[in-house]
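EI: anyone free to look at a 522-residue chain?
SC: sure, send it
EI:
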Amino acid sequence: MKILVIRLHRLGDILQLTPMLEAIKRHYPGSVTTFLTSDRLADALSGNPSLDRITTIPELQWRCLAKGEFRDRIKAFLAVHRLAAFLREERFDLVINRQYEEGGILAAMTDAPQVNGGVFSPQRGHVFDDEPSRELFDAVKSGRRGNRRNLADWSLRIAGAPPGSGRMYLNIPQANAREADHLLASLGSESPPVAVQLGAARSFRCWGAGNFTAVIRHLADFHGRSVVLLGSPDERELAEGVLAGCGRLSGRIIDLVGKTSLKTLGAALQRCEVLISGDTGTAHVAAAVRTPVISLFFGTAYPWETAPYGTGNLVLFADLPCAPCLDPSRCRHGQACRSTIRSEHVCRAWEIRESLSRGADRIEGWRDDVVRLLVTRKEEGAEMTLNDFNGFDTLDPASSLSSRKEKEEKAFRLDASEEEFRLLEERESRLCEALYLHETSWEEPLTGYLDAWRHVISFGCVREGSADAAGIILKDLPPLFGATASALSSGDPVAVGDIVRSGFRPLRQSLQVAATGISSEN
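SC: here you go
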């Protein structure tokens, strides 16, 4: 079965689709999944073991050409025509469109027999042929406040996958991990730093330099914490304002605004205890690498749709009667929701999280009826829920918020389910087949196989591995990766086959027994 997923832009929206991608591999065994996206965001998906191929288009360039002179518009038309021919030639069995407008047109170009998520029809306009997509459209059209389902869970339903059957994922290569270590090397603090994302893609979602400065001063002055500033190059002026406002405390701050790639950003967040952010792509990067988030929601942002996916994230929501709005530029209240969330709210939320992560028995309740404190909770096989903090008497907060010790020990944990080992076996079989048949493109299945290994041993885990599993991960696997890299650089497929059969395969079988208690026959 050939499946095409369409999502062209917005980093956070693409990362919110990664649980669906994992679920597709489980729900449609043997399927081949292609993701169509913008060339600017392909890195968010590279190395994802649930994807077989990433196809990119220069979306921004095409948009500029379409608005240009006649000759430029002809170039854009021809480029889209070539894309349409490619999509038809692929003969996809199922298209999952998670991009309105352009996505519906691209989905129509495929001539696929089944399109979930909406397709453009010249006769009927943009139409939804699957029930979950119609339900989501109705929920958004009716004002959004009645919706209690995260977009990641909506995508699972649209894909036809079971509830809660996937997790956020972002692949972090070792090179980016080393770069993050270098960037954070000057932090001499014993405690992991707190990350702060300063800006947002749209100005009405920016909380302001003064607010962030007050929070950072509180963390540094009263708690002795180091802070990592994050943001895009466009947010340099914002960062300079925060640094100036922090004065003598700037020595406790590492400024990474505009200095990291997406993968290095993820690696840096892995090394932080918590991220403080608005509803941004960075918040979803943190969720993908299992770093807890304290997120601020106001204006158009609605936490039941886009809160960081997972367990133990704290959400501050300015729950005004007009929230969430659709057009802040027409706000008659001066965007009061943004100023409703004050620095004291964020500092209090951080202190609550800190106390719970240290195992405090009693925490004073949240005392604000307008700015609500919510907690994300995601259980296996169930959709994510948002719960009022003051309802924790029935939610056991200690089990919902990971401790600092758990964060520091996560490198020695294993989160490899039975299904992930099945995927690893599939990639191994595909690689061995390519080597046996002397395929000239054996490097591609090798890359997929190594990515599947990295996913099995990735950081940000929730299940303890045994001592045997830790030994395999820390001692036995690194030499095999090094030998494979040497064989790849010399173009020696025979050596690769020997390494897989005599090295990787027995270790996979041993690791599967140590991690899951289930042996493999392969």
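EI: Confidence is low (pLDDT under 50) at residues 393-398, 403-416, 459-466.
SC: 👍
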